[in-house]
Amino acid sequence: MVTGIIQDLKKAVAGIEASEVSYEQNGYHAAVVTQKGSLVSVAEFFNGRVFYLADLCCVDYVDYLELVYFFNHHKTLCRIKVTLKVEPEKPTAPTISHIYNIAHWYEREIHEFFGVYFEGHPNLTYLFLHEGIEYYPLRKKPTPVPEDAKKLLNSFNPEGEEDTFFVNLGPQHPSTHGVLRVVVKMDGEYILSAEPVLGYLHRMHEKMAENRSYLQFLPNPARIDYPGALLLNLAHVTTIEKLCGIEVPERAQYIRTITCELNRIASHLLWFGAFPADLGALTPFLYAFDDREQILDILENITGSRLTYCYFRFGGLYNDIDDTFIEMTKKFVKRMRERFKIYDELVTGNVIFVNRAKGTGILEQDQVHKYGCSGPIIRSTGMPFDIRKTEPYAVYDQVDFEIPTGTVGDNMDRYNVRMAEMEMSLRIVEQAIAKLPSGPFKAEKVPKKLKPPKGDIYHAVESSRGETGVYIVSDESDTPYRMRWRVPSYSNLMTFPALARGTLIADAIATLGSYDIVVPEIDR
Amino acid sequence: METQGPIIRFAVLDKVLDLARANSLWPVTFGLACCAIEMMCTSMARFDLARFGAEVFRPSPRQADLMMVTGTVTRKMAPSLVTLYEQMPSPKWVIAVGNCAISGGPFVFKGQYNIVEGVDKLIPVDVYVPGCPPRPEGLLEGLMKLEEKITGTRRFPKAEEKW
What we know:
The complex is a heterodimer. Chain A is α+β, with helices and mostly antiparallel strands.
């Protein structure tokens, strides 16, 4: 597929350089270098082929800034990196936000962190940062923010219109799952527009990565997405293993799979408690946390912490599992199957719940590629997109599991998909425990100070919310030159303004609850 | 900074009131980050915050008298946090849960541009509970420390120190 796409692209757009690269080494199939004039036609080309914009980031090479676009296909794996060089002084680039909706936010993010002006962007205001920032945070050389750019800091300008009013959902609101703020313009009970305001928990992970060695950054991913801490830990560790060419023993791979799936269930259980709570039912919360505590007990035994795990190391694990772990896990799998029956009686068939969830917040399948959605959100529309299947990591290619999908893409489908996913995770855990080989749990001779070869790599794993990708640019030193996190909640939340428009505010709360967003992940 | 007390004080009645307050602290539903999940765990079945009368989480600060700052306070969040604190009626107390709320925790480094290094730079804090995140037991101990601060006596005898 890649060769054909490149040939077609060369034919369709003049003046670009495109070449295939080693997927094993870089994590993407082809690299395309564009100019400012041809970028929009390249984006249009990919949009025509139903590619989604997986990520858009910027790397500061001091002499020039490089915008990096990752395009991928939901059905067949074909990841293409498109780069565009821009000048460091007053950098400008054409916008692609009219083609891909998600580029809207990505471009605003790059504007505030690097100072790139996107020509034609409808609302180039700050997304994350507070007022009064003096220097562009992610530039390598301190570059002051010009005075005229500071005017853009206020993104919220309520203008007096008759018969409408504004409601601020958050930053302190029980159903925003943290400190998300949504500015909602209302006409009576109906929503005219909803605009999320991000950045209330921006904790500078990407900046920290540039200041710390690969080993020192290990605890950070767990704080990016705390309900699914191990999954992000895995994303970080596997990317660097791939970059450095470290072989991981098979036993470690199996244990990684088991612990990750347990963590996925714990994360989904947290959502299972919170979603009905958003709709007004507090009881499932108590049930879900009861089961979640069982998983925390299992994981605490081997990792040493309850929530923010840092269990994986480059080339293996922190320590081996014991018989207690296997026994407890088997017991848990048995218990959980019984509990699902209770859940079904309590929530799934509950007529109040069904009436609230069915037919609200419908996401159309032909829209998803414009937003770059992933995870249960996209699977609920009927698209079987799962990184565990398309790019198997750990031992997902050796266990048998299916991808549960929905049909309509409404809140009920998202609920059903997640419930089915938990059962699927139990199946994976069971199989992996049965197949668990003996042997070392850690690769030998992994140097303490990692110095990966020069180059870049993109690697993605399926976290409990979707495609979590890490893009690392290495310059042969022991700290990454640039580490970029592609997080699923960010692109999933981008669909919220579209789904909320025209609905009742109570339904919008249900939709927001069904997303299972984690705010520190969005803000990083 | 000192916590504001009531304007009119009655000697014995105050003690009775303090006892009542200490045994029915109403926290405001204010989760910031990772520590908020542990706060939720504390209020759930296993750790059961209700045993100490502090399970009534109020979404509105006007009905609450305890604020648990559970997580990193960013500069963008700081004004909202201060507003929330000011909206709470006196007497009110603050527990700083986790290293981020105490000092900025793991997110303090040279050149950091977005976090407040400790919530006590914004509002007065009564009890600090360290951890990243603190275990629910730690949070419960913090709550008992606060009760001790309010009434002057401890609810349970202190556990023997092992090290």
